[in-house]
Structures are given as structure tokens and as C-alpha cells.
Amino acid sequence: MDTKELLRRYAAGERDFTGVKLPKARLIDANLRSTIFRQADLSGAILDDANLSGADLSYANLRGANIIEASLEGANLSYADLSNAVFLQTFLKGANLTHANLRGAILTETFFKNANLSYADLRGATEFTIYYCKGAIFHETIMPDGSIRSEGTA
After folding, report:
1. Which helix (H) or strand (E) holds 106?
2. Ranges in the chain, pLDDT < 70
3. What DSSP state is assigned to residue 93?
């Protein structure tokens, strides 16, 4: 499947794309709200301005993806590999990032309000600011400096 096929099938009402392989997909400004991308390979994808609110990206490979000015509000990113991904003004309000791998990610003005970052690994992540984490849950979270944070909410 290619990007055009995915968008065509989404427009036709299909929402379950479990295990789809779309490395380096260009999904700029795509509306993929509530889509199931469980165990999908979206490594290196460009998701700028995409709407993935409520999407299930659990266990997905988003390694090295560009996720700029995108909305992932309420998305399930548990166990997702987001290592070395680039985030800029991305909205992750209420997202589930339990056990997510964010190692080496660039998190410029990324909004984690009310997100669950329990057991997430942010080692080596840059531009991470606790200011953007109001109400976020931290439990055994590995912070960018390697320290463990387990203080409940920010």
C-alpha cells in the first residue's frame, strides 16, 4: 500500500490499518483522526500538520518521523518507537505514551498536557520542557538526563 491508497481507503471509511508498512510516507496535512495504526511502520514519515487525534499508534515504529504542528490529542502511543523523531509545536494533550521510546527525540514546544508518560524513555531528548507538561503523569519515567521521575502529575 502507498500513501495515496491509504488516504483513498480512509476517505472511503476504512480506519483499521494495523501493521501497515509505510516508511517515509508523506502524510502532510492528512486528516487521519481515530485511525488504527497499531504496529505500523511509519519510520521516517512526514506527518507535518496531520490530525491523528484519537489514533491508535500503539507499538508503531515512528523512528525518525517529522511530526511538526500535528495533533495527536488523545492518541494511544503506548510502546511506540518515537526515537529521534522531530516534534515542533505538536499537541499530545491526553495522549497515552506509556512505555514509549522517545530517546533522542527533539521536542520543541511539544504539548504533553494531561498526557501519560509512565515508563516512557526520554533519554537524550532535547528541547523537552516541563512547562508544557501540565497535568502529565510521570511514573518511572526516564527523563532526558537519565534521571527517573515518579511524582505523579506535573
Report:
1. strand 106-108
2. 152-154
3. T
The DSSP H or E segment spanning 66 is strand 66-68
In this prediction, residue 153 carries a pLDDT of 67
69: which 3 cell numbers? Answer: 504542528
> pTM value?
0.96
CA-CA distance, 43 to 46, in Å (whole number)? Answer: 9
Which residue's C-alpha cell is 515512528?
A: 62
Q: Is residue 67 within a helix (H) or strand (E), and if so which, with residue range?
A: strand 66-68
Query: Of 87, 84, 88, 92, which Cα lies nearest the Cα of 111?
Result: 92
Angle among Cα 140, 149, 57 to the nearest 5 degrees reads 55
Task: List helix spans (H) across the chain.
Answer: 3-11
Give whole-number Cα distances, 110 to 12, 48, 127, in Å.
Answer: 32, 13, 9
Paired with 67 in beta bridges are 87
Q: Tell me the C-alpha distance between 150 and 154, whole Å.
A: 10
**For residues 64 and 85, what is the distance between their CA atoms, to the nearest angstrom?**
4
